[in-house]
Amino acid sequence: MTDDADEFGSISDFFHERAAKSRSWADTLYPGQHYMRADFDQIVGQNVARFRKAMGLSQADLAASISGEDDVIHQQTVQKIEKGTRPLKYSEAIRICTALHITPVQLGDLPAHAQSNAHFQRAINDVSEAQAKLLDVVGQELVNHLIALAELVGLARAGEKGHQPDPYLIEYAEKLLRANWGMLLNEAILVDIHTRYTRGDELSAQIAEAASPASAFEKVAERTMSMTRTDDSPSIEDNNDEPDA
Question: Is 81 part of any domain?
Fold first, then answer.
């Protein structure tokens, strides 16, 4: 990509043009200070470094994320941009903003405000990463247990009298299957269920199309109950993992 492809030659040009068109905008961004291009390149570079670190990226990581097939950005280029010795092209700034989840205006923030934003972004990013790990580990394990529980409920509903658990156990199991696990975990559960039941019989298709975990697990129970009544599916005793004495 060439400079001619940029709407502005550099991110400095973008800010110069905005400042020229709106003195109030410049005064808001830089209260009581003169707008200097050389100083601005350093401000931009420092902010790129702040927000890059807030996202947990190395200079090489950022370079790779903003590189294109015909416009490869090297780690050394990012290093020069962060030092303020190499002006940041406007097109590169847009790609950096996308990679760092910020706006072009944030690249020009003064240090105190930029640092405040970076601290919050880092904390939010840490929570998001921990949340993703939680969904990966806990989500799959939870789905496994809930599906097993739903199948047991189906078996109990189809079982003959005298071969069922106490009613309070079935009631409590059904309560767990109707639980709301929170928006993100609910979504993870539905994705997992869709993957498991996307192919198969009509009831499997209904499970995959369920709008909530509760309705999906109810369909799992119905499917198990239907299969139990039509074939020799395992009984509740057969689902007990404890070995015979």
Answer: yes
Which value, to the nearest 10 degrees, does the dihedral of the CA atoms of residues 105, 106, 110, 116 take?
A: 150
What domain range is 81 assigned to? 3-109
pTM of the complete model: 0.59
Do 12 and 86 lie in one domain? The reply is yes
Q: Are residues 76 and 144 in the same domain?
A: no
Q: Tens of pLDDT along 201-233?
A: 787 888 888 999 999 999 999 988 888 766 544
pLDDT tens digits along 164-175: 788 889 999 999
Number of domains in the chain: 2
Q: What is the pLDDT of residue 52?
A: 96
Q: Is residue 218 part of a domain?
A: yes
User: At residue 32, does pLDDT exceed 60?
Assistant: no
* 107 vs 110: CA distance, rounded Å: 9
Distance CA 196, CA 208 (A): 8
Contacts with 170 (C-beta within 8 Å, 6 or more apart), sequence order:
153, 156, 157, 164
